[in-house]
Amino acid sequence: MLSPPSMMNDLKSSAQEQLEYMVTEDDDSPLLIANDDIKSEVKDCVGRLFSRFNNLLEAFLCEPTESVGDAGKMKSLQSYLADFSWACQLLTKLEIMKEFVNSWVDASDKIVKVMQSSPAVETIETKLKVVEVVAKVLESIGYDTVILSTAKRLHMVKVWLPFVRVTKPLIDSVMTNDEDSLAFKIDGELWQSLESTFVSIVLALPSTDQAEILTEWLGNERVQYPDLTEAFEVWCYRSNRDGFTLG
Predict the structure, then answer these.
(1) Could you say which of 81, 106, 160, 203 has the lowest number of CB atoms within 10 Å?
(2) Residue 239 in contact with residue 245, Cβ under 8 Å?
């Protein structure tokens, strides 16, 4: 789960595929039984990985704005995010996503700040990798794989909803202008799944928080993504039933 130099990427990918295969159940029993000791070791490894990731975020935030787009450090950031994306699959299979999700929640403000202080064009691939991890984290939250407090769920919506709202058009423009770009390889279902997850999380919030989010969404008439129409319709039905109105 380390983030090594690029010449080790093929070896790392192969090892990850082998480990994922070993813990995956199909017609036969998995080759590796994930007992408590294995789960504990996996959580420790991911925790150490996240600690180094946090150190890198701090390094970015301590640098002058003009040096944030440093190619070497940006590649390191991409490598960590790729590791996280894979780790989420393993952690989900082992049903131990909680620690990772909480770590991501705590780091969310710093991640967004680093992305906002980086030149948009130079960091498009990094932002795509961030979105891929965010989608997995929010899916765990939205469908109750990981139970979070209302405050943390609201925080995640307020941090990541504006981020994906700005990032999707940027990625779409790259896909349109450069069909050979890495961004063109994005899973076509990612945005739809992420949108559905946002709707699910918003609808599980208290009515007053829903009203705040939906009021802000309605005020952005030009925003096409994410489409919160379903959340708005459900909110309207519940509000008419309960006598609650947008303030």
Answers:
(1) 106
(2) yes
Residue for token digits 């939250």?
141
Given the structure tokens 């393993």, which residue do they identify? 90
| Contact between 20 and 89 (Cβ < 8 Å) | yes
CA distance between the termini of the chain: 48
Q: Are residues 119 and 170 in contact, defined by beta-carbon separation less than 8 angstroms?
A: no
Q: Of 20-29, 71-80, 149-158, which gets the smallest average pLDDT?
A: 20-29
pTM of the complete model: 0.85
- Give the Cβ contact number of residue 158 at 10 Å: 14
Give CA–CA dist 160/157, Å, rounded.
5
User: Taking residues 148-153, what's their average pLDDT?
Assistant: 97
Q: Single out the residue of 110, 109, 124 nearest to residue 74, CA to CA.
A: 124
Q: How many CB atoms lie within 10 A of CB 72?
A: 7
Alpha carbon distance 30, 22 (integer Å): 6
Give per-residue pLDDT as tens, 182-226.
Answer: 544 666 789 999 999 999 999 999 999 999 999 999 998 778 899
Task: Give the three-class secondary structure for 119.
Answer: coil
C-alpha span between 225 and 223 (Å, rounded): 6
